[in-house]
Amino acid sequence: MSKAINEYIETNKGRFLEELFELLRIPSVSADPQYKNDVIRTAEAIRVNLIAAGADNVEICSTAGYPIVYGEKMIDPKLPTVLVYGHYDVQPADPLELWVFGPFEPVIKDGKIYARGACDDKGQMYMHVKAFELMMRTNTLPCNVKFMIEGEEEVGSTNLGIFVKANKEKLKADVILISDTGIIANDIPSITVGLRGLSYVEVEVTGPSRDLHSGLYGGAVANPINILCEMIAKMKDDKNHITIPGFYDDVEILSAEERAEMGKAPFSLDEYKKALSLSDIHGEEGYTTNERNSIRPTLDVNGIWGGYTGEGAKTVIASKAYAKISMRLVPHQSSDKITKLFSDYFESIAPKSVKVKVTPHHGGEPVVTPSTSVAYKAASMAMETTFGKKPVPVRSGGSIPIVAMFKSELGLDSVLMGFGLDSDAIHSPNEHYGVFNYLKGIETIPYFFKNFADLSK
Ligand code: BES
Ligand code: MN
Ligand code: MN
After folding, report:
1. Number of the ligand 1 atom closest to the C-alpha atom of 198
2. Which among 366, 69, 30, 326 has a CA at the least distance from the CA of 203?
3. Is the pLDDT of residue 281 over 90?
4. Structural domain 197-251+297-364, CATH architecture
5. Is the beta carbon of 156 within 6 A of some atom in ligand 1?
């Protein structure tokens, strides 16, 4: 089997890259309505690619937002079915001036593909389309496969949630396979076994009904920007614990053994600091860096604005101040409950001199996936074959909101077999994805299918 896989990849890798570049050239930014036609065009391109790879019943399923591309190859109803999930939408590319190459003009430099979405998630999603093509052309597809590729992951997957609830029969499968996460390093493979949930809110603080002269009024009225900063500062104590009452009530507490097991994953604090140009790290007292970014919840301001931010100085007290705040959640916290606790607390600490408003955005539930299942074993063995090393199970700090819903609505576990690196700069300027990782993914996926089919017998 390995000879056929390697030969097929060797012969076709130039085309695999060229086809991915075509997708990367379309700016499928789901957050920005300006790109509406491009997002829709990307769904159409994926439809065409799935058909070309050999999928049947390929359709563009419209939703209240961007479409979901579905396709399948059912070879035998008695065989197991793998449902592949991925997303074709990408994050906005700004700030544009920090990109060395255009975000939608992919180039390869030093073995890396530079483009928005190269890793998250067009590159990783497309590995599955090409691995499927490989299995079709080499007559090695060992079980049934369904594809569900969405266009709203980066904006919360709300419409996919509705689609999943309404299409349980269509989506019937034995496992969900996703490449939208990462590995520790190219010589240290890992499989993600946990994702954090998310509660995302926007806050507005209003002081006076109009902007004021900061000399005539300064000192005598509440400045909403100052107040907002004070309120945000009150959300953490000097140990960096979050102070919202009840925030930690449901947080899963790991045993000393579990934490010790986690601590075995290779990690260098010096390299971590160096990679980010940090002279020191920062976080909740009593936890390691890897615990802080995976098994512990967070509260972070993602954006804050108000008043005058143009050239020079304007002496003004703004009428309003705003912030966007995200809280990453861990098992067994609930996104709705945390949003409510946040709103209550934010309102309770607001001084009488201002009015506040909290608007919830999308949320998502945390998830832990099993590392003892047949599907996990299939992924672990596949990576061991192609990397020459057994992958380490790790919990990630990122979120993929639909994964918890796959479990709650379809009763299906997901295998998070991603191939990205933390240094790929997803969501940042100069996002990139290693050609090595792209081809390694295409090589590993057929082994997953084979192992899963064999172990399911
Ligand atoms: N693929 C990422 C999530 C991810 C990346 C998980 C690396 C683990 C490792 C996904 O596209 C993403 O960015 N999700 C958003 C969630 C959202 C916008 C609701 C996130 O985590 O911020
Ligand atoms: Mn993603
Ligand atoms: Mn993303």
Report:
1. 19
2. 326
3. yes
4. 2-Layer Sandwich (3.30)
5. yes
Answer whether residue 1 shows pLDDT above 90: no
Measured CA to CA, the distance from residue 293 to residue 328 in angstroms comes to 9
Q: For the chain, what's the residue count? A: 457
Which of 30, 122, 327, 400, when mutated, tests ligand 1's pocket best, judged by the most ligand atoms within 8 Å of its CB?
A: 400
Phi, psi of 51 (to 5 degrees): -65, -45
Please list the residue range(s) of the chain that carry CATH number 3.30.70.360. Answer: 197-251+297-364
Q: Which CATH superfamily is domain 2-195+367-455 in?
A: Zn peptidases (3.40.630.10)
The model's confidence at residue 429, banded by pLDDT at 50, 70 and 90, is very high
Question: What is the value of pTM for the model shown?
Answer: 0.95
Express each pLDDT in 64-114 by its tens digit. 999 999 999 999 999 999 999 999 999 999 999 999 999 999 999 999 999
Residue whose tokens read 């936890």: 287
Q: What are the residue ranges of CATH 3.40.630.10 in the chain?
A: 2-195+367-455
